[in-house]
Recover the amino acids of this structure.
């Protein structure tokens, strides 16, 4: 099955700086890569996703890049703000058929220092 | 309002006492899934269902059962809970596994 590795496990940045979280996946057939944000005591919520026919996607201060050859994808957050403090999870899946569901990385605790 | 609901939200039980955590969605989603979340281990999939009467094991299915008799409901059953099943459980639903997953509020289970 799919295996997703996520780094770093903890990331501390100064408010206003950028943050980058990286993930690698093992199944070359995976073609859907979402990122979820989980605030303390809350449920995970989708913040951005990318499909394998696209190399980069942006939504305001958030961007995701995908390198299919190297089987890795990254989350970029620019101009970080206190409300960006949370745990972020990457995931990978195959659309359509296939026995696997959605596989998550272990998460990155992002801390925004004032 | 589109939502995924879980019940109960908190549960403390004893080893071996059968329990069921319910999950229901009102978005007509085909795909539903159960995850457990443990510190340092992230979200691990227990079981998922692609449609009514179609269920598959995830990464950590041992000790759990599920059923999907109706599209909207996907209960998680622990026939004989053990302390290592103490965890935070999330149910989720989506159009498909390759679309946005909508998570329920979570069920915090403690098995003593």
């Amino acid at each position: 099955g799919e295996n997703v590795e996520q780094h770093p496990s903890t990331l501390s940045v100064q408010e206003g700086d950028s943050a980058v979280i990286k993930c690698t996946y093992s199944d070359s057939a995976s073609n859907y890569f979402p990122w979820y944000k989980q605030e303390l005591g809350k449920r995970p919520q989708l913040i951005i996703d990318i499909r394998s026919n696209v190399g980069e996607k942006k939504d305001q201060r958030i961007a995701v890049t995908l390198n299919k050859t190297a089987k890795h994808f990254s989350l970029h957050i620019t101009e970080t703000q206190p409300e960006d403090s949370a745990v972020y999870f990457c995931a990978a899946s195959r659309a359509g058929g296939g026995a696997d569901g959605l596989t998550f990385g272990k998460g990155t605790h992002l801390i925004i220092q004032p | 309002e589109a939502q995924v609901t879980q019940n109960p939200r908190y549960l403390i039980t004893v080893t071996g006492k059968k329990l069921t955590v319910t999950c229901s969605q009102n978005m007509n989603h085909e795909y539903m899934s159960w995850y457990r979340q443990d510190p340092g281990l992230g979200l691990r999939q227990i079981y998922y269902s692609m449609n009514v009467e179609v269920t598959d094991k995830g990464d950590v299915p041992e000790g759990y059962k599920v059923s999907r008799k109706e599209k909207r409901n996907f209960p998680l059953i622990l026939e004989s809970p053990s302390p290592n099943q103490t965890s935070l459980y999330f149910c989720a639903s989506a159009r498909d596994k390759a679309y946005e997953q909508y998570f329920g509020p979570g069920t915090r289970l403690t098995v003593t």
